[in-house]
Specification:
Elements lengths: L1 E5 L7 H9 L2 E4 L13 E5 L5 E5 L19 H11 L9 H11 L6 H16 L5 E3 L16 H9 L3 E5 L8 H6 L3 E7 L17 H7 L2 H8 L2 E5 L6
Parallel strand pairs: 1-2, 1-6, 2-5, 6-7
Antiparallel strand pairs: 3-4, 7-8
């Protein structure tokens, strides 16, 4: 079983979904310290004035004093209205209605940020036809060593769940010690996704925006094809 283990980001960029495509099971990593002003409660979309702008989900308790799974929306309904309002300039995009409905549906009365983001990932995957078998880490009752470093969580979770392989975005390569994964019998792989460039109506194309931007301008089939264009590189145990 090949695992991917990532924090629950808010409608992340397309490469995040390439990682989902490359794994057998996804672990929503929500047991570490919450870090404010990260991708967990915000992302970027096109700015009608040019460039990009932030879309943020306000939190009631976003601080370093909590774990990620404790983060809660200040007002789910207000957050829904705000996010939809920040997407209104896409109204002439060919897939605006379908994507707007998708975003509207992921917001419920449940204030959990983690569950909101997990629903969003699930909704996007369902929309484009991508399998998304996943579990939320805080619900697994794993027995993990204390004081783990950034590159150690994945190794220990893979060992606890009996995974044979772990895949991570190539940008995080420096965090991991391939030899320590090999000693646990876990093959370590790094993923490089391809850039997906597309026409954005009267706006200029901006790379690495929220997946919502790609969905607005492209069919689900085109987005799925882009998501599936990635490269996996195995790490050697003698590489540090």
């Amino acid at each position: 079983m090949r695992l991917a283990i990532m924090q629950p980001y808010f409608f992340p960029y397309l490469g995040h979904f390439s990682l989902i495509a490359a794994c057998d099971e996804w672990i929503v990593f929500d047991i570490s310290q919450y870090t404010p002003k990260t991708w967990m409660n915000r992302n970027r979309v096109l700015n009608p004035a040019g460039g990009s702008k932030w879309v943020t989900v306000p939190l009631a308790n976003g601080s370093i004093r909590i774990r990620a799974h404790e983060a809660a929306l200040l007002d789910p309904k207000a957050a829904q209205r705000s996010v939809l309002g920040h997407l209104s300039h896409y109204r002439h995009a060919p897939h605006y209605a379908a994507v707007r409905a998708l975003v509207e549906d992921v917001f419920t009365d449940d204030p959990s940020l983690v569950r909101l983001n997990a629903r969003a990932l699930d909704a996007v995957c369902s929309y484009i036809g991508l399998s998304f078998p996943h579990r939320i880490c805080s619900e697994l009752d794993l027995s993990l060593p204390p004081e783990l470093g950034p590159g150690d969580w994945a190794r220990e979770i893979c060992g606890a769940l009996g995974a044979s392989a772990y895949v991570n975005p190539v940008g995080g390569r420096a965090l991991f010690d391939p030899a320590s994964f090999a000693r646990r019998g876990v093959a370590l792989h790094f993923l490089q996704s391809e850039t997906f460039t597309y026409a954005a109506g009267r706006f200029g194309f901006e790379p690495n925006l929220s997946i919502l931007d790609a969905l607005m301008w492209n069919s689900p089939e085109a987005v799925l094809a882009a998501v599936q264009r990635y490269h996996l590189s195995p790490a050697r145990a003698d590489q540090a």
